[in-house]
Amino acid sequence: MTSSTPITTSVFDLFKVGPGPSSSHTIGPMKAAFDFRQRLGSLSPDVAQQADAIHVHLYGSLSATGKGHGTDRAVVAGLLGWQPETTDPDALLGLLKDSAVVYAVPVGDRTISIGPEQIYFQRKRYDSPYANTMVLQLLAHDQVLLEAEYYSIGGGFIIRKGEPETPLTTASVPYPYSSMAELKALLKAHSLTLDELLITNEMRLTGKSRSEVNRRLDQILDFMHKAVRRGLRQKGTLPGSIKLSRKAPILFQQAKGMSHSSDSFLIFLNAYCLAASEENAAGGIVVTAPTSGASGVIPGLTYLAKHHFHYDRATLRAGMLAAAAVGFLVKHNASISGAEMGCMGEIGTASAMGAAFLTRCAQPNGSISAIEAAAEIAIEHHLGMTCDPIGGYVQIPCIERNAMGAVKAYNAFLLATSGAASFQKISLDAVIKVMKATGRDMSTKYKETSEAGLALSATEC
Question: What region holds the Serine dehydratase beta chain domain (predicted)?
Answer without folding.
Answer: 10-162
